[in-house]
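Collaborator request, handled under Task 6.
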Amino acid sequence: MERSVVLTADGSSSVFVPYFDEYYHSVHGALQESVHVFIDAGFLFKINNSKELSILEIGFGTGLNTFLTFLEAEKYNAKIDYVTIEKFPLERNIYEALHFNTITDDANKQARFMSMHTIDWNKKSKVNTHFYLTKLHIDVLDFKASNMFDIIYFDAFAPTAQKELWTTAVFTAMYDALKNEGVLVTYCAKGEVKRILKSVGFVVQSLPGPIGKREMTRAIKLNK
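Structure tokens returned to the collaborator:
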């Protein structure tokens, strides 16, 4: 799959995929979007209740969400079990060209980011004593779990590009994968997506979106 690295408005990198005519992140700023949607609305929303979190990410992509979660976990001395799914991993020349050095000037932490791309797939790996990473090289449609995760970062390509990932079947699987009071966060705020989330049992919240988007979505699993 042809891909190229591009620079977004906040100086951080994204990847463009001509096949889908899609970017991995917002062109208004990859970093600001990931922080707003996944860290602020997801990780920080849950971390006050527990210093041990299990996180599922749909779409490892550039590794930005994973790396930001790793950095936040260090601040809170939190223990994280992080599982991420990616059907189309980036080639080495692509991830080595990513420009995320504005996130941290710590060379050791920058090396951690690169290690997240080079560690083995389909194997639980220790990034440090508090952060464990499992990268699954599979299709999201083949993933099943039950009552395992506190947070889901749903960061698939938009419904216009991959409509098969925004269906009742997929969101039922996401609902099942979450623990009670677990949350799913996504940049997408389409009415149809929110209706599907509600139909499978989620309590849906419309939140202010990152720069360039009016809204984003947080969905909470609340067992009756």
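The cover message to the collaborator said: "The chain has a mean pLDDT of 94. The first helix runs from residue 30 to 47. Please let us know whether this matches your experimental observations."
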